Amino acid sequence: MALDAKLHDIYDEVLGRNPGEAEFHQAVREVLSSLGPVVQKHPDYVDAAVIRRLCEPERQIIFRVPWIDDSGQVQINRGFRVEFNSALGPYKGGLRFHPSVYLGIVKFLGFEQIFKNSLSGMPIGGGKGGSDFNPKGRSDMEIMRFCQSFMIELHRHIGEYTDVPAGDTGVGQREIGFLFGQYKRVTNRYESGVLTGKGIHWGGSLVRTEATGYGTVFFTEEMLKANKESFDGKRVVVSGSGNVALYAIEKVKQLGGTVVACSDSSGYVVDENGVDFDLLREIKERRRGRISEYAEEKNVPFSSTGSVWDVPCEIALPCATQNEINEEQALTLIKNGCRYVAEGANMPSTPEAIERFREAGIHFAPGKAANAGGVATSALEMQQNASRDTWSFGFTEDRLGQIMRGIHQRCLETADEYGKPDDYVAGANIAGFIKVADAMLALGVV
Ligand SMILES: NC(=O)C1=CN([C@@H]2O[C@H](COP(=O)(O)OP(=O)(O)OC[C@H]3O[C@@H](n4cnc5c(N)ncnc54)[C@H](O)[C@@H]3O)[C@@H](O)[C@H]2O)C=CC1
Ligand SMILES: O=C(O)CCC(=O)C(=O)O
């Protein structure tokens, strides 16, 4: 989509200052493409260089992570933490451990996080981190040694009032445990609020594990309700089978839909009777196995070629990774009758795919709105830590539901106000942006 002239200059500057960071460029362009009507109404956002400042992280930390594998060999990975924007609160965002991680991925995720966290209504800034470490196939002891080495450097930069990491791809409760243990050891502080996604007996919140997937489904339910529909009887395809995907699958079933397919990086399974959440969770969370085991145990088809998006559905929930729906796959979804797409993952649809969805009148919710339930529940975990309290599952899930309904309403109201009715991308970008931009104006040039 074409950019307004002033925004185009800003985008060119971002390209020049951040060469080779394609995912970061994509995330910036997607936000800028919504801001034309905003800068026309509020030229001060450009005059005070708010948008240019937003595109430059406040701090970027890159560090060496040496560790010893089970055979006694020294391994070296690279660690990152990008502290992007703290106008609304301490930097907040997950850590990703995956071989594809480099600065451009961490910056795209950190940039998205600014607007998502703003939209969530919680007092949290945006940041993200991770490493090119590949946890796949590593023993628990190797994971622990890696996490301990990672935290030896990271602990200098984080804190309850500074920067609060959490999990993301490749980082779940096991890794958060090793990271928290090392933080506690090197600082000699039981500072519960320094990390979220902790276990329930050591400062964690009920519902945080389920929150991103549940939140995505709650958001989708609101989209359906806005069109006088429900999940009841709908065919749903979910990509991935990790943290976000698993709990999206569970909640879709609870709301009356049928998840007919899901995937992992080795392929996808189709189960016309509805994916069996308990079995999938057993394979993925406990055995750390491959999705083909599901197909073998249920005697259903597994495919290692093609795409999960070839499976016909009315609702698509991409919950695996960035750019996993390209233009061709978007066209296949449309041809097969898909009418709703809500992003559980961060930036899973390419710009061309989003354009095809828009042309076809698909109800499309971007990740920064639809998957904000995870980070919002992390903020609820921080609230519980600060008040030395523990909330019940029901109470916390109700709070998550209210937050997702609030985000949905803010997206639609803002889209309407700026002349883009029903455009969740415009609504999310503009509503997320304005709150941070106003805070930055109020805080002066810092
Ligand atoms: N965990 C959280 O609370 C949040 C996660 N997200 C985003 O959701 C997405 C998934 O994160 P998690 O579930 O936490 O990670 P995870 O590590 O638990 O699961 C990732 C899943 O995606 C699959 N996958 C990865 N690449 C794939 C590919 N090319 N094709 C098919 N499947 C692929 C993996 O096999 C795995 O099943 C990421 O984009 C992450 O940034 C967004 C908000 C919060
Ligand atoms: O819970 C958090 O702090 C971070 C979640 C996250 O990384 C995300 O929203 O993408």
TrEMBL record:
Pfam families in the record: ELFV_dehydrog, ELFV_dehydrog_N
Chain positions recorded as substrate binding sites: 92, 113, 116, 167, 378
Gene3D superfamilies hit by this protein: Glutamate Dehydrogenase, chain A, domain 3 (1.10.285.10), Leucine Dehydrogenase, chain A, domain 1 (3.40.50.10860), NAD(P)-binding Rossmann-like Domain (3.40.50.720)
GO molecular function terms attached to this record: glutamate dehydrogenase (NADP+) activity; nucleotide binding
GO biological process, one term: glutamate biosynthetic process
GO cellular component annotations of the record: cytosol
Active site per database record: 128
Binding site for NAD(+): 212, 243
Glutamate/phenylalanine/leucine/valine/L-tryptophan dehydrogenase C-terminal domain: residues covered: 205-444
SUPFAM superfamilies attached to this UniProt entry: Aminoacid dehydrogenase-like, N-terminal domain, NAD(P)-binding Rossmann-fold domains
CDD domains to which the protein is assigned, alphabetical: NAD_bind_2_Glu_DH
Stored NCBIfam families: PRK09414.1
Protein name: Glutamate dehydrogenase
Naturally occurring in which organism (per UniProt): Propioniferax innocua
